[in-house]
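hey can u run this one w/ protoporphyrin IX containing FE bound, need the structure tokens asap thx
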Amino acid sequence: MEALEGLLLGLSALALLAGVVASILLARRRERWAWVSTFAVGISLVALLGGLVERGLWGGYWPLASPYEFALVCVGTLLLAYLAMIGQSGSRTVGAALLLLALMVMGYARLGIPAVAQMVRPLPPALDSLWLQLHAGTSAMAYGAFGAAAVAGLLYLMRGWLSKWTALPSSEALEELGQWGVTLGFPWMTLAMITGAIWAQVTWGTYWNWEPKEILALVTWLIYLLYLHARVVRGWRGRPLAVLAVLGVVLAVVNYFWAGSLARWAGLEVLRVY
Amino acid sequence: MRRWMGRIGHFSRKLWRFFGDMRLAVILFIAVAVFSLLGTFFPQQPPELAADAAASAGWWAAVQARYGPLSRFYAALGLFTLHDAVLLKFLLIGLLLNAAVCTANRLPALRRALVSPQVVQPEAFFSVLEHNAQVSIPSRQQAVNALTNILRRHRYRLLWREGDEVVALHASRNHIGALGTQITHWSLTLLVVSLVWVCPLAWREEITLGPGQTRALRHRPTVQVRAERLVIERLPDGVPRQYRAPVTVLADGIATTQEVWLNQPLVVQEIGYYLASYGPALRVAATDATGRRLQMVAGNGSPDEEAILLFQEEGAFREVSIPPLKVSLQVSYTSGEGSGGLSTVSVRPVREGRVGPAVSKRVVAGEALVWEGIALTFIPTDYVVLLAVYDPSFATVILSALGLMVGLMLSFYLPHQRLWARVTPDSRLLLAGMAEGDWLGFDRHFARLVAIIKEETAHGGA
Ligand code: HEM
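ok here u go:
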């Protein structure tokens, strides 16, 4: 069973790699590669889904609990964001960058996470909750969309330098994509905060513990809130919004990797982290 | 008097303007974010410690050891108790007033937009709006027919005004979406009210119970809680799969029993009982040489044929007295779990305040340790720590968060859209449109509409 899961995830990674290569060629105006990149992403997504379903059936739970599973699900939502974005704007350069991000996450999940942490394990009691699964699922949806916004933001910020190498969409198109990603992701992130609060309430009797992970999530949410308000109400455009879109994802990454280390670095574990 | 009234009026208008400014919201968002971020670098005092002076003092001593003389300064800023920090409350109340005033300010415009929109707009208006177009039309009537057909097909609600010179139209759709921002912001207001005013009514306390022990809640002395033996379900490799303990709550003469496990609290009269942790305990019984059970008293409990000793700290001694023998026993216990499966009991007798030599024994459940003709039996068991939580803010917080969600979905996915048209005497059709919150898809939608209108007016407006 594990072999089948490994096979499907391996296929997904290979298809994703093919998608990245095709979309880079496509970004360099080789139009005939268009169908290859979309087809490869489709294959990668289906294989990833198959691998995750297989894992879920094998483990008897929704495969959303461990950092490894969460990273894989984020690959899936980044690919979904890619497909939605291609439908939305057809921007192949942004697509190539987004696929590159998905490939990096996939590479980290498959190669960077130790094999023992990749194994299917029964859930520890605190994680065995439907609310956690809803929380992780909605977070992954948000991060997929925010990933697209951040990629558009990064390309916007680096457009002067990048335009020497490749044809970029107009600044307006990049801005619009950034806004599209933030608008798509924000309701999901809000839902993730709500389901996370309910999970904490049901498991520990407090919906908000002011622990580093929660605070970083709140600050990320506030950054996107600032993005939406500053754009609509204060008329911000361009660079500051692109910076906010990138900052949101940087904070999400810090939260994923370093919330625990941050607590340790600040010396909190001695005093029981809440 | 009139001057005073004037001053108050002037002052309140200024205050209203201050809180109605969106720049304040931007500053407050950043301030809340920065203050919260600071909190990631400081340990947060568990709220259940508040009711336990000794535990609070221990916690505070650890904080002082780490932060030294600055501890008091940080504490004054509320950095160890973000949930209760005055500065954060201050910022949140600012945000609350800010959101409420901004939202209230938008009500009249919203009412106008929904109930009595301005239909006739001057020509200049059509070039001011970002989305605008101009179409040449064969005849006035034909343009009106075509517009009516097309916009109805796109689910617009139409309001026409016909004058001698011009015909004007206001069309709008997704009226419910216009309420999105209002719903979002009022939900936010409710959320902050719940956090600032309802949260302080909440309390939490830990109750440590050996199997079969009963205790009253400190915050509700009429409520009694009893826990039975903890059961730990394990996987084949010994890793805990689930912890369960039957818990009974006796409140107002009604007993409610339920098995409590992680993710499954018992809730009685709005108080939730959560399984927080567990630890080693011993059931101790003493029998004299004739086989008679001796009465024992543990802590400040009442005499019984069995005492339950809880060992919160590894290696600490717990005292149990045997009144018929005028002796107390100090018992320490190392549970097998942390020491390679070997459980050890060590007993020190205390007579008239003098501690005698210790007797140690590896214990197997039920096996006796004989001391001066008395057989002491020890049965290893576990105590459980329940967390009793009363938090009336949870319901309002979740309700307002869901309101926030509904408002967001309406604003983002059903944005209120409005169009204006003006048919001029020189056979031009002016069009302009806008969507709530500068909705992204609107430019495409508007361009599509204009293309259809051009096509149908050119073909006689079928
Ligand atoms: C955490 C709290 C808040 C949330 C979740 C929130 C959410 C939103 C959302 C989703 C929008 C619509 C944006 C769009 O259409 O793209 C919006 C618009 C707006 N917000 Fe807030 N907001 C919050 C706080 C505030 C505060 C404190 C103010 C007060 C200054 C404010 C004033 C406004 C205004 C004036 C608009 C423009 C509405 C429009 O153009 O239709 N918001 N807000």
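Confidence is low (pLDDT under 50) at residues 262-274 of chain A. anyway lmk if its weird
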